[in-house]
Amino acid sequence: MTSMNTAERLAAIRGGAKPKRHNARTIAALTRNPGCARRAVLDCAGIDKQRLAAYVDFPARFGQSQFAIARGNAFEAQVKADGAAELLTLLRERLGLSIPEVAYDDLASVTGREQESPEVRYARTRTLLIRAATGAGDAGTLFDHPLLRINVAGQPVYLEPDLIAFQAGGRFHVVEIKSFAIVDGQADAGKVSSAAIQSAVYVLAMRELLAEAGFDPEIVSHDVVLVCPRDFSNRPTAVLVDVRKQLAVLRRQLGRMTRIDELLAALPPDLSFDLAPDAAGVPTRDPAAIVTALRAIDARYTPDCLAVCELAYFCRHEARGCTAALGPATREALGGIDRVETALALAHDVLPPAEEQAEAAALLQAAARLRAEALAGAPA
Ligand code: SF4
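^ thats the input. predicted complex w/ iron/sulfur cluster below
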């Protein structure tokens, strides 16, 4: 077999399907579990994990409802209508930003552009952002759907955000439009936190792009603009969110990911997730073969996976009985004890601990004693 480069190998692993494009949500989720080789390989190969999970009979049970997606799209279209007129009013009036008259450039909507390769679209985004950064007169300052790029496990990954980046007063800001409401100045903390980490992905990608071109990365502000419906109306409001903390977390997590070529080197050379659809698009590959392929890549299941990864139910089933599946705190506390049945046997003193298990065994036995005392004292 002729040796393939990393991109060719990833394409072979994906098979004939079109690669699934990343967005900030997928990058943010990927960095929640940087030690998982399975997710890193599947995501770098652009594999549709949702489809794969359903095919092996462990469908994902998270994601936005169709209703929420439709509502989000309608709100976004409203904010961006007429050259983002409503957004500009918000930026000027509510945030007090002095923004001159601006040009609006939608990097995705020109006929035929959708057919362009990511490399070509990225190059166009790059040219326009650099022109704006150098202050070239007609460059325009509002960019819709820029195609960005970020390095994940040593592999460039393209991001197609539904966002606008604007440049004013020599600085760029990322604008994230979300459909959850801000009521009396307050919003759901979990949703704001997810929006902040997703925006941080775009800030990082824009900083990398401009830094490569010789600009100070700080030219992209760490204050992102979050636009949401106000109170119970569909009128937009905007707030600035400082994402410095999220940027630090992202950098650290991305830095912890093993390089993709090292991961690929350890995998079977014929590994493939091609569902081999027939002429009608119906997959012909045996689901058992896909399960075997999945098992060929090490996973690192944690309960957190249930909220962020489409393969969570498959991986949870596979990790049944492993102490690691109970979460990082348990894994650390039970260092050296991999199986739940071993932990139980040590707790009940029916298995003599190995030397490296002695400390954990003493803790387990103390916990078992406390539990027994608590149960004995509980009212019938
Ligand atoms: S669900 Fe599985 S593939 Fe996804 S991050 Fe968790 S362990 Fe990795």
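The chain is about 45% helix and 10% strand.
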